Structures are given as structure tokens and as C-alpha cells.
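Protein folds are increasingly written down as C-alpha cells. With that in mind, we are printing a sequence and the C-alpha cells encoding its fold.
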Amino acid sequence: MGIAVVIPVRNRERLVEPTLESLAAQTRRPDRIILVDNGSTDSTLQTLRRFAEGKPHVRVVSEPRPGAAEARNCGLDAVREDYVMFFDSDDLMPPRHIEEVMAELQRNDFPDIGAFGMVRRGLDGTTVHKPFRGGDLMYQHLFHCILSTQCYVVRTEFIRRAGRWPEMTPVWDDFILGVRLLCRNPRLCELKLSEPVKIIAQTDSITGLDFSSKAGLWEQALDSVARELRSGHAEKYLPLVDCRRAILAGEYRREGHPDLAKNLTPTLKSRLIARYVALGGRGVATLFPLLPF
């Protein structure tokens, strides 16, 4: 069994180097590393090419269409290995990551998807551990995005059959893709790893540091999630999408933009959730099923 790692990169000439170094330090190197330059205007492409020199398993390709999903699909087209994982250009892979992922895939009889947790480091240096959450996987993903970009490995043919990354999606493309994958009832196993991947927050992150500055885009992503659930005959989860809209409304209010929230809370339940979030409340995933209406 072989594994490929796909990394989209745009204008990260300095930030990408620690990521590349973490790949070079793997105790079991990936069978293929595909670095996708996504129209960089700085020296990123030259940095990627220098890293690839003398490494036949590293390939640099270009995707002129803007967008992380477009770049990931370009990289996916170049994958010939059985499994693929996606990584971002400013995150860090622990040295034994590929070795342990492959061992865990074998231990679990090579599932469609192997998922694991991660650690997120904020701009202030604080870290938050985000573990994998089992049970009702769609429920967990809709509330906690358990299939975020760096938190799983997937059979290459499975993701291709599922429809690949959703293009023309500026935010939450991994959230939408996770729903798309889960609607196809994969055999998914948690991979027990000794050390999680590290997600490093950046001020120029695609997702951004707030919600209000990208108002409208989050709503479009949630509409896409609802369409995926309907097409995947998983309509029973649509109330959770409404709950996510209410959470978004609460974030808008917390950021001082209640005008952005007015069309997201049509029911008493959604208004209560939005107010709870606006006041700093957490744990909506636990509270949601307890609300009696």
C-alpha cells in the first residue's frame, strides 16, 4: 500500500519551509509528495522546486485557477498511490506520522478513511487539542468537523468516486467534503497516533480570524452542506445545519454585527442558540439534543 501527500501552496515562500522540513524528517517517507503551486506571485514556486531537487518522489505541479480546493483537486489528479492525505502549507507533521498512519491502516485492515486528532496553535501561542470524536460520525462532523483537512487519510479511489473537493468554495471546503464522504457510508476507523499533527494559525489564513468579514460565504457553505445531505439521503441531519446557522448568527452578534444574523434564526430554538453563543456559551453540540422544542 502506498500513500501520497498533497499540499497546495500560494505565496508562502517563508512559511512553507518548516512544513517541507517536517515532511523531509519523516521516518517513513510518503511514496509521493505533490506540491501544488496555486498561482504564487512571490518566490514560492522556486522554493518548492528547490525542495524537489534530487527527490524523485516529490513532484511540483501548478494550478492557475485560484482556490485551495482547485489546487487540491489538481494534486489529486496526480496521485497514483492507494491512499492520499492533504496537508496545508503552514502546518507541521510529527516525524513518525506517515510511519504510524501506515501501520494503523494495516492494523485496521485498510479502511476507506483513517481519522485522527490534531493540535491547533493560535496566534497568541496557546494550543488547543482537537481529538477525534467517534459515535455518530455525521453528527460529530457537523458540529466538530472531524474530517478537517489535515485530520484523515482516505483511499484515493473513494474520494474520487465521492466527487473530490468542492470547487468555487472560498470557506469550509473541508467541512463540505467531509459531509460528501460520510454520505457514502465509508468504513472509517480512528488511527491511534503517538503525536498529533500541528495546525498553525496565520493572520492570512483562507478561513480568516473572524466571521463577519466573510459574511455570506459561511451561509453559502452551509447551503452546500444541506444539498449534500439531501443528495446523500441524510435529511435527518438537516436540523443540525439549522443549528449551525444559529451558531453563526451568535458569532455575528458576538462580533458586534447583529444585522448579519437576522435571517439565520427563524425559530425560537435557533434564537436561543444564537443568544447563548453571542454571550460566549460553548458546547452547543451537547445542549442541542436536550432542547425540548
